[in-house]
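[step 3/7] inverse_fold.run input=structure_tokens len=194
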């Protein structure tokens, strides 16, 4: 049987063509663009955020993120580091170089090395969450970034200067004791650069 009109059929997924990347969440408190090449991780993040009333839009890599970010207009973007076509750090750099997305909160969700954390800070990433992570860490991180964005947007309407930049958050897995860096990963909780 042929696929229905407007449906693209691939080896591992079937997705309608066009802007159908998100599931609408009635009364959503915000929108997050989740960028990860691992479908299971995208789904894990989606489910946890949707349970908290946050709308989620997904992209499979940095190139797809850049293709849809202006249409989607997310409140926060989460990025994996290692992805095909365009990795998370180069995607973050491109988002920061675009005036329309320069102030958009960016979080890296990856098994980050210290080098990747430092490179992320250099390109303007706001927060880091080490994989594996606890769902509450993910939700808290995204909500914090959305709140900071809301404060920045509110300050602009009042002609008060504000930025999303500055020190980001580094959040490690709650399964670890949380004492500094282990095996080259940033596994501590706190402000990046602190």
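[step 3/7] decode complete -> sequence:
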């Amino acid at each position: 049987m042929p696929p229905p009109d407007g449906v693209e059929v691939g080896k591992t997924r079937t997705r309608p063509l066009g802007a159908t990347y998100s599931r609408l969440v009635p009364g959503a408190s915000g929108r997050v663009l989740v960028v990860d090449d691992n479908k299971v991780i995208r789904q894990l993040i989606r489910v946890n955020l949707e349970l908290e009333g946050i709308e989620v839009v997904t992209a499979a890599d940095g190139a797809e993120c850049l293709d849809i970010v202006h249409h989607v207009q997310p409140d926060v973007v989460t990025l994996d580091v290692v992805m095909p076509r365009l990795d998370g750090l180069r995607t973050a750099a491109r988002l920061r170089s675009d005036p329309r997305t320069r102030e958009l909160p960016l979080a890296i969700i990856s098994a980050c090395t210290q080098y990747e954390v430092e490179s992320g800070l250099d390109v303007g990433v706001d927060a880091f969450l080490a994989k594996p992570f606890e769902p509450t860490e993910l939700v808290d991180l995204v909500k914090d970034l959305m709140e900071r964005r809301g404060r920045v947007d509110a300050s602009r309407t009042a002609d008060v200067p504000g930025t999303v930049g500055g020190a980001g958050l580094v959040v490690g897995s709650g399964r670890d004791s949380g004492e500094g860096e282990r095996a080259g990963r940033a596994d501590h909780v706190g402000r990046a650069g602190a």
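[step 4/7] annotate
The longest strand covers residues 31-35.
The radius of gyration is 17 Å.
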